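re the bet — no i am not wrong, look at it urself. input seq straight from the record:
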Amino acid sequence: MAEAAWRATLCPYCGVGCGLLVEVRDGRVTRVKGDPAHPSSLGDVCAKAVHLPPTLRTPDRLLHPHLRPRRDGTLQRVPWELALRTAAERLGEIVAAHGPDAIAFYASGQLTTEEYYVASKLAKGFFGTNNFDTNSRLCMASAAVGYTRSLGADGPPSTYADLDAADCVLLIGANAADCHPVLFKRLRRRKAAAPDEVTVIVADPRWTETADLADLHLALRPGSDVALLNAMLYVLVREKRLARDFIAAHTHGWAEVEGAVAVWTPERAAALTGLSAEAIVRAARRFGDARAALTLWSMGVNQSRSGTDKVAAIVNLHLATGQIGRPGAGPFSLTGQPNAMGGREAGGLSHLLPGYRSVSDASARAEVEGHWGVAPGTIAPRPGRAALEIFEGLAAGEVRAVWIVCTNPAASMPDTDVVERALRQAELVIVQDAYHPTETTRFADVLLPAAQWPEKDGVMTSSERRLTYLPKLVEPPGEALPDAEIFTRFAAVMGWKAAFAYGGAADIFDEHAALTRAQPCDCSGVSHARLRAEGPLQWPLPHGLHPGTERLYTDGRFPTPSGRARFVAVRPIEVAEPADAAFPLTLTTGRVRDHWHTLTRTGQAPALRSRTPEPIVEINAADAQRASIQDGDFVEVTSRRGKVIAQCRVTSAIREGVCFVPFHWGRRLGFYKSANNLTLGTRDPLSRQPELKACAVRLRRLERSP
């Protein structure tokens, strides 16, 4: 037996970007522990990371390319050459017959930056379609658009060290204990070290372990965040707890916002949020009195038809109090996936080009076209279809083919019936994944086996803008290949080999980094070699000697034409589907600690699977009593789109009128286990992110367990 070696790398789960030490023995990953040298996690690690080894070698690993000769036929193993040639021929035929926008790419925040970059270049620069979007649209689009709208550019301005310096931490729409547990541990240590100095406020309809840490828990109605935040700002205005000098020197638009919040008294907001006016005032005062205030938010804010307005309301609070650009202060979005940040840097959404450029900007298009060596006018001037729009286009016959990479939309998208109908309707479905079967691979005409995180090298960017290099530690099983290599091999079959002739991931990163020069996410001063030598670094990194940037906007300058941040006046908007007599409860969805996304990976870890083997429905005791439901009963949860059947947990830890179902289970694991049977596809008009966190449902007790 070969001697074991421990190697440093990055966790492939959430956007915290925890450093891992991985034991490799006999060519296999055998153990995982936290890396004390990694500045993002300081040696901490969660259970999901600890149980990574069994997920790498399982019977469900996809080992070989497959084709389905007929839509009603079975998948058949084929050589790579035939799989790629078939994909190239069929995509080429569709583009020739219907134009480039008849195809679409749907990728993932779990790809490395290099993989994102090559895929985006392939779609936008060579096929000529901006129909390239990712599952980041489901989690971070509202934060990205919200930051750009208020501050001038995407990118969280804060850093994890701010948790150690803040004396007021507001968590809104963020159950960090379950979704970002390593950050939650850090916050808990901070609170334990200075319990009388640090105030924790949690705004969440559920009482979670995160709320256990709170000095003040605001169990607001789903979707009412803007009313709460506007009322908090109203209190700060009324009580003169504002940073008037900062407002005057570094912002514009204050007068409009001050006028807009003037009607949002705590009493008026109380009627919308279901909170007491006194609780709203108390939250505002604690925020306003803070020496350093930090707001953390995640999907509870972003996954809403008013997600960008919620982000604007958060940023308004920070600008009005000058709580940005200094230790312990800032509006800080917590990213859901390990490289959703890096994907946006690489142009991985349908409205973006590398370096946070917009496809609508003629000069940006020309610059990127020159960099890629394609003819002027190749990049389309309009944003492509966002995530849900791709599948709606497939269902309508307007999009004919889709290439799905490292994601499982048949389980993760809202309103599963629409997604399944789209995939059945499509002329061509290419799926590139590390596992089979999934809810999505069963629709594949071309199925391509991809390498996982320790089987390739590349870079990922965490929530705090920190780039970490992931080395290749082991060989991929079977014929699986890194995603970037699949794309470059495909490009060669299409006749574009010269433009994709990279020597490896390091070359791809260098090409990407050059396109970020002088952009807000400037990574031009970093390379694989530098990250290997120096360890993780935070952008902007404008030159090779730059040490990295811990916080943004420390000088009060913002990347807007005026150099000032923008106040944005917003008003509360009701959820798209409010509860009514027929559907009297509001469903909200979310994670449980031991699972992630659609169980594609965590479902392969026996220890994680056994801890939470089935979904549950959380319901308030008063609602349960009205429906004659008792704890442990099996219930049917029905919306206007479908139903879920699960065991009920009656609890006082969720506000009356609200129920909760975790979203991890797809139909492959039981048709009526999928929360997305219930959800709806209404979107934020700016971010085009769906409202996954609220829809109207009713509950019925089942006489017998299913």
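see?? Residues 141-333 form a domain with the Dimethylsulfoxide Reductase; domain 2 fold (CATH 3.40.228.10). told u. also The chain has four domains: 5-56, 66-83+93-135+338-538, 141-333, 585-701. so pay up
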